[in-house]
Amino acid sequence: MIIPRILILIFTFTATAEALALDINFKTQAEVEASEITLGDIAEFSEHSQFSAALSTLVICRAPEPGEVTTLDARQVISSLVKKHAQMNSVFWKGSSGISVKRASQTITHEKVLAVIRQYIDDNLHRMPKARITFKPESLPLPFLLPTGRLSWEVVPSSPRIIGSSRFSVIIRVDERVQKNFSVRGHTEAIMPVVVTTRRLKYGQTITTDSVTVAPRDISRFESYINNPEDIIGSLIKRTLTEGAVVGLE
User: Fold this and answer.
1) What pLDDT shows up at residue 250?
2) How many CB atoms lie within 10 A of CB 225?
3) Which helix (H) or strand (E) holds 11?
4) Over the stretch 175-234, which tens digit does the pLDDT of each residue have?
5) With contact defined as beta carbons under 8 Å apart, do 58 and 128 qualify?
6) Which of 46, 103, 39, 41 is nearest to 77 (CA)?
7) Reported pTM
8) Which candidate, 226, 163, 223, 218, places its Cα nearest to that of 194?
9) Which residues, at least 6 apart from 157, have a Cβ–Cβ distance to it below 8 Å?
């Protein structure tokens, strides 16, 4: 039983000696990336040791929201640490009485959000007709801040067809954790050449080569449409169509 006691005495003496020799100097300003502020974020140590390394990991408080700033009172920090850790009584404190701490951030602009939606559409073009597909937002999303880290995106259209979707839900993760979930409203148009009338056609009339032509239209607004005029030449009109109307299969 003598050897363990000697070891304990040696360890206690060593830790105390390190603490007595340690100066902790508070910074005036600091920037953090994590969601918590540690002593190592806001102070510098007069020497590098196992004791100072452990002290640097002590959590002071939660960090502010990304991009925001909070000010810490050094006296309150010291008081809190001393109450929780007896070894801190032997530390010599220096530096600023107030520490301004800013949370690092990354800005997400509307250009980035719309680019991600555009990329989602491009990645799914093989599922859709050969049209010029464009998402037109009702209004541009406002920029916002997120914590620093690796971004990943998930996009969900309001319609499984994608074409005609009135909104896209966007989920943003930072380092695999969801940080933002929102929707961008608008209209997803798909412009392609389709058969349209060249004049007003009444019910029962026969479709001739000069009564139809091909023109670009947004097919997301029509349940049925035809690409080749030859497919309907000689057919009878089943309902009156105005000039420029899209001709569909009925």
Assistant:
1) 67
2) 18
3) helix 2-20
4) 999 999 999 999 999 999 999 999 999 999 999 999 999 999 999 988 889 999 999 999
5) no
6) 39
7) 0.78
8) 226
9) 120, 165, 167, 168, 169, 188
